[in-house]
Amino acid sequence: MNKIYEDYYRMDKLPTIWCPGCGNGIVLNGFIEAFKNSGLDRKNTVIVSGIGCSSRSALYLDFDTIHTTHGRAIAFATGIKQSRPELNVVVLTGDGDCSAIGGNHLIHAARRNIDLTVICYNNSTYGMTNGQYSPTTPTGSITATSMYGFMESPFDLCKLVEAAGATYVARTTTYLAKMIPILVKNALLKKGFSFVDVIAQCPTYFGRRNKMSAPADMMKWIRDNSVNKKQAESMSEQELAGKFVVGEFVNREKPELTAEYTKLIERLKEKAGADLAKV
Ligand SMILES: Cc1ncc(C[n+]2csc(CCOP(=O)(O)OP(=O)(O)O)c2C)c(N)n1
C-alpha cells in the first residue's frame, strides 16, 4: 500500500467490509489525498459518519472519528462544530444516510451555513441493506424495492444544497478519480458548508440488477453518463435526464454560523463587562 495511505488508515481495521469493485475505496483514498494536500492538522480534525457501507469509512481512518447512527451524522457534526468551532469537522456519508433519513439535517446545515465538509458517497442505492432505492436512484433502475423500475425522480443533491445555502458545492465521480482530491481539498479549506457529491459504483447491489455486474461496466456507465458543467449549459432538461453533471457549481462567501456565534458571545461579554463597570 502506498505510504500516504498507510499513514492515514488504521491498518489493524483492514481489510474493509467493501465488496470487490466497490467505489468506496476510491472516494476514501481521494479524501486522504485531499486532506494531506490541504495542510490541515489531523489533531484538530474530527471525522463523523452515519450508518452504511460508506459510513464505515470513519472506522478505517486514523483520526478522531465518530461513527454515529443512520442519518444523524450531520446532526452530530453540527453539535461538535457548535461546541468546538476551532475543529475541522468532516462528514463521510452515503446518499441514503444524508438525503433520505438524514435529508432534513443536510438541508438545514446548508441553510445555516455551518462550517462542515460533507462528502457524499453517492452509489444510488442503500448498499448495506442489499440495494433498496434511495433518493438519488436514477429513474427506471431496478432495485430491491423497485423490481419493475424506479418510478420516481431522483434528487440532484448539488442543486438541493445550493438552493439551501451551501457555500461550496461540487460533483465528481469515481471514474474521474483524480478530481476527488482537488474538489475535496477546496471543500476542506472553505469556511462554510461544503458539499462534494461523488458518484460511485455499487456493482453488487445496484450493478447486478441493472445489467452491470462487473465493476468495469459500472465505471463505463458512470463515464458515459457524465457531462461536465460547461457541456451541460447547452443541454436541455430532457437531454440532461439521467446524466451526472460534474464540476464545481458554487464557491461563494457568506457569514458562517459558528464564527457569527463567536462574535455574538464576544459582544455579549463586552456588554456584560460594561454593565458591571457601571455598578
Ligand atoms: C434508524 C435506522 N433505519 C434504518 C437502518 C438500516 N440501514 C442501515 S444502512 C442503511 C442504508 C445505507 O445506505 P447509504 O446511506 O446510501 O449507504 P451505503 O450503504 O449505500 O454506502 C439502512 C437503511 C438503520 N441502521 N437505522
How do the strands and helices of this protein lay out in sequence?
Elements lengths: L2 H6 L15 H15 L6 E5 L7 H4 L3 E4 L5 H11 L4 E7 H5 L3 H10 L3 E7 L2 E2 L5 E2 L23 H8 L3 E6 L5 H11 L4 E6 L3 H5 L7 H10 L1 E3 H5 L3 H4 L3 E8 L5 H22 L1
Parallel strand pairs: 1-2, 1-3, 3-4, 4-8, 7-8, 9-10
Antiparallel strand pairs: 5-6, 7-10
Bound molecules: thiamine diphosphate.
Short description:
It contains 13 helices and ten strands. By secondary structure, the protein is α/β, with parallel strands linked by helices. The chain has a single domain, classed as Rossmann fold, CATH 3.40.50.
General description of the model:
- By secondary structure, this protein is α/β, with parallel strands linked by helices.
- The chain contains 13 helices and ten strands.
- The strands form two sheets. An eight-stranded mixed sheet has the order 2-1-3-4-8-7-10-9, sandwiched between helices. The protein has a two-stranded antiparallel sheet with strand order 5-6.
- The longest helix is centred in the last third of the chain and has 22 residues, at 257-278.
- The protein is globular.
- Helix content is 42%, strand content 18%.
- The protein has one domain (3-278): Rossmann fold (3-Layer(aba) Sandwich), CATH 3.40.50.970.
- Bound molecules: thiamine diphosphate.
- The site of thiamine diphosphate (TPP) has 17 residues, from helix 5 and strand 5.
